[in-house]
């Protein structure tokens, strides 16, 4: 992603998260899709020194797809906190744009 494109606004909207970007793009991403795309090591596993690794089994429960809060991380990502207590996924702007 080009460095000058920034996330300008974020708003929960029903079962979606609305995102507005500095290049006028607007996205509506489902909360379930966001949670299933969580990039953290808990959800994806940690690769070994050769870059290989298996993602652990994910067990979603009540609140897994309910967004509790979010916060901006620097000028490059969002940290999403879920109602089931999961809060280790830092979603880069590049990842959000690809979703």
- Provide the spatial order of strands within the biggest beta sheet: 1-2-3
Q: Would you identify the CATH architecture?
A: 2-Layer Sandwich
Whole-number mean pLDDT:
91
Structural class from helices and strands?
Answer: alpha+beta
Number of strands: 6
Approximately how much beta-strand content do the residues carry? 25-35%
Question: Uncertain segments of ≥5 residues (pLDDT<50)?
Answer: none
| Shape estimate | globular
Helical fraction? 10-25%
Largest sheet: 3 strands, antiparallel
The count of domains is: 1
Per CATH, what is the topology? Answer: NE0471 N-terminal domain-like
Q: How many H/I helices? A: 3
| The first-level CATH class name | Alpha Beta
N-to-C SSE string, H for helix and E for strand: EEEHHEEEH
The Cα radius of gyration reads 14 Å
End-to-end C-alpha gap: 13 Å
